[in-house]
Design a protein that fits this description.
Length: about 675
Amino acid sequence: MTKNKLVAFVQKVSNSRSILLGVLAAIIGVLTGAGVWLFKYLFNLLKQFSFTTFPGWFPHQKIWLVALVPVVGGILVGLMIKYLGGKEKVAGTAGIIQSVEIAGGRLRYQHLPVKTLEAIVSIGTGASVGPEDPSVQIGANLGSFLGQVLRLRENETAMLVGAGAAAAIAAAFNAPIAGVFFALEIIIGDLTGSSLGLILISAVLSSVFTQAVSGSSPAFQVHTYSMSSSWEIGLYIGLGLLAGPISALYVRLLYWAQDLFGQWKFPGWAKTGVAGLIVGCTGIFLPQVFGVGYDTITNILSQSQMTFWLLIALMVGKLIMTPVSIGGGFTGGVFAPSLFIGAAMGGAYGVAMAALFPSLGIAPSAYALVGMAAVLAGAVHAPLTAAILLFEMTSDYRIILPLLLAVAISLIISQKIQPRSVYSLGLARKGFFLSRAKQIDVLETVFVKETMHHSVQTLSIDDDVSLAKEYLFHSHARGLPVLDKDGELCGILTMGDVEAIPEGKKMTIANLCRQHPSVTYPQDTLASALKKMSVLEVGQLPVVLPEDPRHVVGMLYREDVIHAYAVATKRRQDMRYSEQQSRLDAVTPEQVEINEVTVEKGSLVDGKLLREIEFPADCLVASVRHNNRVIIPRGDTVIEHGDTLVLVAQGQAVTLVERMCMAEPKQAQLV
């Protein structure tokens, strides 16, 4: 059946789209399961050759050859990225999330074979990365491929991308329910969406295929655990308190390493080579950091007697080597390393607690299991995915209660330290701020502490009203807080209160000010503060601390809220503009680039009609941003300095247009 006939068939059954989508989800599930199985087989085969077969040929140099394997792998990956392509502006799972959010699930599926090969070489030669991200790429790109080829609607293509991601996690861990929650919680971002049915079908069939070819065992063989004493709940709380900061540190180290390697003025293959050298030298002393580390996790969970200091070394080693690998340019995921870090951290914590409280009969491996979920939840900000994944691996309800508690605590602390997850932070650094709420008041995104006046003129309760009137006049404020003799808030005096005093009458502020005024807090949103102002019919609110509600730290005026509304609206416009650019980029052929150029004052295009400017043949002006408005340009559109042109261009056309838009262009052409 040709492509056109296939598309015609799809269009004929458009009245039964739910059936069509269900069939496609089933196909995605089976093919993703097969693809992930093949991917795992190939990188394990390469790992066996790299670290066992090849070094065995030279037994006297085995240690040094093992250390050089990641170097060779890094150079190969760097060369593949340079010459075979496949590098994305937003890579990995973050790129899939962006695609679903703003590009209707459109992914550059043509890159999948190269990216998968890069991941096989990376993991097979010892890079300290995980296989889940490349696995999710396989499923998501397969869903995007079917959606684009069959010309499905954007929301349908996005649902198929989510179904592919769920199938990938189900195949990777033999955990279909965790796959479903991964897709809903991380990829789709909506636990109540209509995509649930498709995701379930895909995840279940992927898991069925995986069990048929690899058995029904989960990714990790673990013992059945239970709390020997209710006192252990306190210890699990401590584990959550420890996991939160480690999760946040892990996320920050990942992007710190990317920035560090990005500053180096070396070829890409040299950077991956250096990263491989660092990993290889570390692996001489700590070989467990090589690759995905599933064997080490299994050893920790199987109650093997690992010492406290070895577990700490494993945690620190993985915590550093994964950012080095990712930052250096290796292809792989951050999902499995977070499980490794959590297992080592939890195991070390369990060993320490067992030594401190021998009478409780503590099993350190139980803490390792809970630590895996806690660190994963803190890193990806997906508590349900983390909890369900570990629950599916144990099939035991008795461990789920302390697990949920530790996950919740870790998530709260991690979000406090690092508000964005490992995926959303990657998007934010590219200028895309993920917001999945359906309708959000822009003032809900701005807080009082961002807008309030920190330097506040205050009045004393014993001051004369005439002095207060002078203060109000010179400060141009509608109202000022009144403090008592102890310097604590006791009221507020407004200009309206002062003007209402009969002329010549002497009064003190104590007789005139409004007692017990309403207040707001620094962490409140401007939306809630404005609502309070409207209900109370006041134009200002003192800002106080929650722990000390009579200590004034600032003032919020209605004018501040209005100004902030304009700023927040501008921020949202900028975000929507960025989204449209990303959307345009998603549907643009690979060899064509999307660029922005700002018109400078005095340039040759400044003040000209668009039709008067002879742009290069390989360039199209897609839109013009003028005074915060996006204009679809026509021939009579006037280009003015300060305008931003969004160009769809190829080759050297962008460089030529940049010169035309400079104040002193080196070359330009006008009709």
